[in-house]
Amino acid sequence: MPRESGRNDRRTRIAHLAARLMAEDGIEDYALAKRKAARQAGTPDTRDLPTNDEIDAELRTYQQIYLRGEHDDRLRQLREIALRAMRELAEFDPHLTGSVLNGNAGKYADVDLQLYTDNVKAVELHLIDRGIPYRAGQVKLYAGADAQTVPLYTVVDDGMEIQLTVLGTRELRGPVRTSPEGKPIERARMPAVEQLLAQIEAVSGRL
Question: How many domains does the chain divide into?
Fold first, then answer.
């Protein structure tokens, strides 16, 4: 029992340190945050690190205790930016994903959108036609067991980067993951994001 208790205490401490790194330093990569937190905790053995869900729980607690007003303002701003982009790109059935959706966005979080279309080139043409500057790249995702390398466009609104990942409409029928064993990426359409933004505004007394 003492050994199990020590392991749980170690996991909790690493989860707390990782959450603080994500909240204060803007680290978005869970694996990187875990490694840095383990080093800070003096735990070279990385076989028993906390899960992403455990870190998310600690991150929510940290933000509520130490960054509540600042975090709410930041999250409101990011969701407003997300909604503007979703309205601009409505023809591509945009879905919000990532930390701006789940509420854990740190100081330097980007807005992550997934776009769905049977003509992936149409997204780039849309940006060109409207004179929206962008950077083009690629990202690997998994639909089922199949790896796909899909277009990724980065645009900027109000100083914030928006990552646009372009997928085929058939990928709406099943989960999309960042790795074969990973959890499905949570995603939400515009009405759900509007509701989330309204909830923040109601809590802050702005409605």
Answer: 2
In a domain, 102, yes or no: yes
Domain that holds residue 41: 2-66
Q: Is residue 122 part of a domain?
A: yes
- Is there a single domain that holds both residue 101 and residue 186? yes
Q: What is the pTM of this model?
A: 0.76
How remote is the C-alpha of 125 from its chain's centroid? 26
* pLDDT tens profile 154-207: 999 989 999 999 999 999 999 999 888 888 999 999 999 999 988 877 766 544
**Residue type for 168, please?**
G
Residue 115 dihedral angles phi and psi, to the nearest 5°: -110, 145
| Radius of gyration of the chain from its Cα atoms, rounded to whole angstroms | 19
125/181 same-domain check: yes
Measured at the alpha carbon of residue 172, what is the angle toward residues 167 and 176, in degrees to the nearest 5? 70
Question: Residues 50, 128: one domain?
Answer: no
The answer to whether 123 and 151 have CB atoms below 8 angstroms apart is yes
Whether residues 17 and 99 share a domain: the answer is: no
